[in-house]
Amino acid sequence: NDGAYYPVGLLTIAAHLRRTIPRATVRVVDLHHEPAYSPRADVVGISASSTLNYRNALSLARQAKAAGATVVLGGPHVTQLADQVLRNRNGLVDFVIRGNGEVAFERLIKALQGARRLESVPALSWRNASGEPIHNTVPPTRWVYDAFLPLDLSALSCGVEAYWDVFRHRIDRSVDAAFIIFSHFGCGYREMMMRRPNNGGRLANWCSYCSLNDPLSIRAGRAIVNETMALLKSTSVRPGSNVLLKCYGDNVGTQQAVLRDLVAAIEERDEWRSYRIGWTFYAQSSRVSSNLVELLRRVGTRSLYIGFDSADDEVQRLNGLGTSLAAHRRAVRLCKEAGIRIQAGFVLGCAGETRRSVENTVRFAEELAEQGVLERINSAILFIIPGSPAYSRLCEREPWIAALDDLPTDEIQSHWIRHFCPDLGADTAERFRILRWAANRLDELSPGPHASMGFISERLASRSEFAEAARV
After folding, report:
1. Tell me, what's the pLDDT at 472?
2. Using CA atoms, how far apart are residues 286 and 192, in angstroms rounded to an integer?
């Protein structure tokens, strides 16, 4: 996020700890805003939120251990690689929490205080007396986000205003406040495709690069509205302010029932209309229908992030992306007619990528740029995420990768395109040149500021503020 959005996952843990262990002092530190911070605490929990930030997480762990702290890692990357982390980082990482960490972190603290046994901490990975990794079971009860609200934004060491300052500077100067509000968790498309046999010659049933493993859960419209109003009041946002709500729930296109309930909740809450509130959601292009767009319009959606990924139908099919060029064009037309801006996402280098498929994607992006509906374009060259179908398939070809916790991204990308994109170019160097050319071209087409998505384009590298964010 380059410091524009606060870390909700750490805040739900902090809020839960403050309520259940009131004698503890709990702070959430974001190095985007406090780059000189040195972790000094009895227990330091570090979020390895991505494969791309894992080395930074290890660097923080070293600082924390040097200061005498107990180090706990959590987040998507280590959730998938808990065994590898414990085997490879003995003496550096003490514990790993897999999946949602609120209750697990609380019970770990109590275990460290002597009030519990480590065996009783759910979803905890640790080492026994002989140094062997132990992975406690994940409880069968469903995680409920609303059980950990309200968020306590006062736990942010830098304050929430620091995020709003970055948001205005980097994204939209007209916005007075920006909040992350989830309408749902998990992906309905993935859940549906998990139940189907793979009989179409696909690399994966669902998006090959996706490592989501959270079960699908939805929130009531009234709960969403109540959370929003509570955040506005707790941060003293004045009526009349321009407020953006960012939903990180995956694929709202499968959640029309949630949107209908949200419409009803908004329309019955007069207080909502005293602010200028707009939303950003994410959707698959194949799920963008006239009904969905009408619901998005009624809740006040300003922009829709559409994961176009590829504009080549064969690449779409092979990677289980669940959409097509025709669906892309329909989604663009419907958004344009409704006045909803599009944030376009493209992933280059999926399995089966060829020079022609890359050219098809670039041509579609150029076509999209001419429609006058774009807010921004984000482009990425596929990097392999543990837990994704692509990771599993690559480990079948390169078994040594499965023992790693710190993935050498460039090397692994090279192996990926060698095995799964053989028709992209004559050799690995040429294949990378084609992908970098396309990613740079897509970034050139973006009319507004955008994130790196793991690829630092020539345009992004030239921005002084991005260079500073990348340094952090």
Report:
1. 41
2. 14
